[in-house]
Amino acid sequence: MKAIGYNTTGAAEVLEALEIDRPTPGPGDLLVEVKGISVNPVDVKLRALSAPDGGPKVLGFDAAGVVVDLGTEVTDFAIGDAVFYAGDVTRAGTNATFHAVDARIVGRKPETLDFVEAASLPLTAITAWEMLFDAFRLTEGAGEGQALLVIGGAGGVGSILIQLAKTLTGLTVIATASRPETQDWVRKMGADHVVDHRGDLVAQLADLNLTPSYVAALTATDMHWPAIIEAIAPRGQIALIDDPETLDMKAAKPKALSVHWEFMFTRSMFQTEDMTAQRDLLNRVAQMIDAGRLQSTLTEHAGVINVENLRAAHLRQESGRVIGKQVLGGW
């Protein structure tokens, strides 16, 4: 089957077209014919840092497609089902014509989105959902009178996090964005207020007379850390997804702050007992999309799935200027 992968770490040019064996689904797996994929920062990080082990490495996590085969223990899917999911960092990726995935982390594709649009959602929706309800331990409808600061609101995670917070909680959402087009985008996603992370965050929040109880630090956390510590409410909650080299954790002590790392692959990586939580939340997201309560975060269609287009999509990710999500579809 067709796939795109790499044999050595490096720049986007190391990605190459491959012909590899079609996978056989394990007992609890679905075999999915991949119709659409999206590109995430994790793809770029792994391509640069994660060396292949004994053969080419195929990346890709977000996917939408059609079930073409089932493992012997799968009972809640059927051949022909349209699905979407974010995969497992410990297994081969979705940049292939067929992909085997654990059925417990797969959701039903939104009926109102095509496969390419649907592929833009899973990884970021899971990440955002887990930040709100696992890391922050919010319950649906909670948060009235409190504020959430989303640093890097125009990216993929920020775009869906703003929407989920506005739709499922009572939080006031403050998003950071530095360019006119990104500021317009986060307002479109539903942000109540917009501040510029290139400026003085503390002063801008003071001007709004808002003290966030929750901070989603989605980018450059090491750079924004002092402002986060100063601006957040006592006993506030911070969740981050990036990889800062160092953070001054002692600075969080006077306010008794809680700091959480969010990593959406944890459940599948460690085969946790609650792995089906990701399936369930993806089904909720699909229902909300179909009901018009959430909107797609897709902004860039990078063309069909081939090595040239995937290289270009990786380069766009590296630019740090992607708004929302970029997708590819069809082989």
Automatic annotation (TrEMBL):
Q: What Pfam families does the annotation carry?
A: ADH_N, ADH_zinc_N
Tell me where in or outside the cell this protein is found: Cytoplasm
Q: Which domain of life is it from?
A: Bacteria
Annotated ranges, domain Enoyl reductase (ER): 10-328
Q: Which SUPFAM superfamilies match?
A: GroES-like, NAD(P)-binding Rossmann-fold domains
Keywords attached to this entry = Acetylation, Cytoplasm, Metal-binding, NADP, Oxidoreductase, RNA-binding, Zinc
The record's listing under PROSITE patterns reads:
QOR_ZETA_CRYSTAL
Gene3D superfamilies linked: Medium-chain alcohol dehydrogenases, catalytic domain, NAD(P)-binding Rossmann-like Domain
Q: Does the keyword Cell membrane apply?
A: no
- How does this polypeptide assemble, per the annotation? Homotetramer.
Q: What family does the Swiss-Prot or TrEMBL record give for this protein?
A: Belongs to the zinc-containing alcohol dehydrogenase family. Quinone oxidoreductase subfamily.
Supply the name of the protein: Zinc-type alcohol dehydrogenase-like protein
